[in-house]
Specification:
The chain is an all-alpha fold. It contains six helices and no strands. α1 packs antiparallel against α2 and α2 packs parallel to α5.
């Protein structure tokens, strides 16, 4: 499972890097040579959508969404587990139809393309749809792990190593 999660992290990171490179390259070309990269804006939008779906899958599995834990903090271990189960079930119930609808969007793009280069949008939407599907799948994995009282989270040995290095 660790390899799969590492691969998902890498996919999200690569697309974030591509966004940064495309944006920085366009700014450099615009100010240095008064020209711009064709489709840089459409490209960054598509890449951002891909990075977001792949990132959502990781946040779902690790349970690291932005949240307000006022209730959770005041519950005992059994109450926290129940609340985590309900929250993860709601997340899975949201992500499954979302993934389905992204695939419907992939099927409905037809021959649509970007403005300048006419790159098929279907390529971008397909990679995003795989990320949305991975998010739904990891939500179900997390739900199963919580149900079986297994902690769905990062490898703590790396966190322990980091805290040892930084003296925390």
């Amino acid at each position: 499972m660790r390899r799969i999660l590492s691969a998902i992290e890498s996919v999200a990171a690569v697309f974030l890097l591509l966004i940064a490179l495309l944006t920085a390259g366009n700014v450099l070309l615009r100010y240095a040579f008064s020209m711009q990269i064709p489709d840089w804006f459409d490209g960054t939008q598509m890449l951002q959508g891909i990075a977001m779906f792949w990132g959502i899958s990781l946040a779902t599995y690790y349970g690291t969404h932005i949240g307000v834990d006022i209730v959770w903090e005041h519950l005992g271990p059994a109450g926290r587990r129940r609340l985590d189960l309900v929250a993860t079930a709601i997340t899975a119930a949201f992500l499954m139809p979302l993934a389905w609808m992204v695939w419907v969007k992939v099927g409905g793009t037809g021959s649509q393309g970007t403005m300048d280069l006419r790159l098929p949008l279907q390529w971008f939407y397909s990679v995003a749809a795989v990320g949305a599907s991975v998010a739904a799948l990891l939500a179900l994995v997390r739900l199963w792990q919580l149900w079986h009282r297994r902690e769905a989270g990062r490898d703590t040995s790396q966190d322990d190593l980091a805290s040892t290095i930084h003296g925390s």
